[in-house]
Amino acid sequence: MASNTPFLGLLKKDPATDGNDTFNIKTMLNDNWDKIDADAAKPFYLKSATYDSANDKIDITFGPGRAAFLETLVVKDQDSTYSIYAPAANTSYYVYLKSDGTFTHNTTGGEVTGAVPVWKITTGATVDQITTEDLRGQLPGAGARKVQDNLDDLAGAGRTTETVKGNADAIQSHIDAAAPHSGHETPSGAQAKADAAEGNAKGYADSLFDDLAGVGRTTETVKGNADNLAAHIGNTNNPHNVNPSQIGAETPDGAQAKVDAHATRTDNPHNVTPAQIGAVNKAGDTMTGSLQFNDANTKILEGTNNAVRAQTNSGYIDIGPQNTNYCHIYTDRPAFYFNKTGLYASGNKIWHAGNDGSGSGLDADKVDGVHVTGSSTAGLRKITLSTANPSGGADGDIWIKYTG
Asked: Degrees (nearest 5) of the Cα angle 341, 346, 352?
């Protein structure tokens, strides 16, 4: 039985059940063509194109419409709005309808994969001076394929694709048969209409294919568009002239000032501990090795029996108690050397070869506290050794004469 196509409602006849029906030129041919033509005529008309100065964009409003892309039909029952941001003066923007139902644009008018041009928006000396050009003649898109699909539907479901001429031939065969119908078109009339339909379809499809690149422009390949996009993505010279304040970033001078301020801080802003950097804590710490001064020739370390050892490249001295009774001082040198003569032990002067003798105050140069050269000689006796006879002297003196 007869049915209608889902997109345009084109009338279809079922050869199995409708094969004996009269071929009605109006309902089965002309009405279908009228639907195809009407559907292609007025989709996505331009309702407005205005410049929004507050947001620096051109807002474009399209009316409803539909377009076929191979096996995809784009249908918009409501108005659509598309915006071109940051437009430039004296520039043409080509707006395209994509097969996913969205819009896109470029300034070249070049081919866009999966899309057909609908309108050209051109700015004048200022961006608010806008003119438009209708490019919808290329719309039903992939238009030739849509015509082809509709003609395929006319052939009947489940059958292979037939060209317009094939359909015309089938009609001619039906007409030439021993027609049981009355009032149908004459063979020559039906053939003429079929030939006209084929010519119209071919001319329409050819014009669509020729115009896909855009009026007055050559076709650009998808690769060309991709190359342009890749070049833009790889541009590291700030092609959009974005400044730090627009993206909340620091200026170079501001960043340098903060780095300089941080670098001069001496209050340990990162709370680094001595252990983290292998340093000795001045508040107290344990060293497992020697403490060197300038180089390995001078250092302090642990000596024998827990003594503190001061060591140079000439030797060492250990200072520290070796038991509970005494404090000990040891050295690996053969003697101790003091560069001062005044040495004391618990306030008592220590006598040595450098400070004894006459005038030192040491009791060793007196007898019973009296100096032999002092003015008081009471109780002292003089002993004289001589080869001469005794003479002079005092009582108690001793004179010893010897032969030389």
From this structure: 30
pLDDT digits (tens, 9 = 90+) for 15-68: 888 878 887 888 888 888 887 776 555 678 888 999 999 999 999 999 888 877
pLDDT of residue 144: 42
d(CA 33, CA 27): 10
φ, ψ of residue 51 in degrees (nearest 5):
-95, 130
- Report yes or no: 272 and 266 within 8 Å, Cβ to Cβ: no
Q: Which residues lie below 8 Å from residue 297, measured CB to CB, with a gap of 6+?
A: 312, 313
CA 115/CA 98 separation, integer angstroms? 4
Cα–Cα distance, 272 to 70 (Å, whole number): 68
d(CA 341, CA 143): 121
Token pair for 268? 């340990």
Other CB atoms closer than 10 Å to residue 275's CB: what's the count?
Answer: 10
> Is the separation of the CB atoms in 65 and 76 below 8 Å?
yes
Place of tokens 């000689």: 377
CA 399 to CA 393: how far, in whole Å? 9
Pairing of strands 46-52, 348-349: unpaired
Do residues 65 and 40 touch, judged by C-beta distance below 8 A? no
DSSP summary character for residue 386: E
Question: What pLDDT sits at residue 262?
Answer: 93
Query: Which strands, in side-by-side order, build the sheet including 291-293?
Result: 291-293, 295-302, 308-312, 315-321, 327-331
- Helix (H) / strand (E) element for 39: namely helix 31-41
What gap in Å lies between CA 240 and CA 242, rounded to an integer? Answer: 6
Structural element, H or E, at residue 192:
helix 187-211
Instruction: Scan for tokens 């050209």, then name that residue.
Output: 120
Whole-model pTM over 0.70 = no
Burial of 208 (0-12, 13-18, 19+ CB in 10 A): buried
Which position has the token pair 């004179």? Answer: 399
Bridging pattern class, strands 383-386 and 398-401: parallel
Rounded to 5 degrees, φ, ψ at 349 are -70, 140
Dihedral in degrees, nearest 10, Cα atoms 277, 283, 288, 293: 80
Beta strands (DSSP E) in 165-264 are none
Cα(203)–Cα(24) distance, integer angstroms: 25
How many residues in the chain? 404
Query: 53 CB contacts (<8 Å, ≥6 apart)?
Result: 128
Distance of CA 191 to the CA centre of its chain: 69
Q: How is residue 99 written in tokens?
A: 């097969």
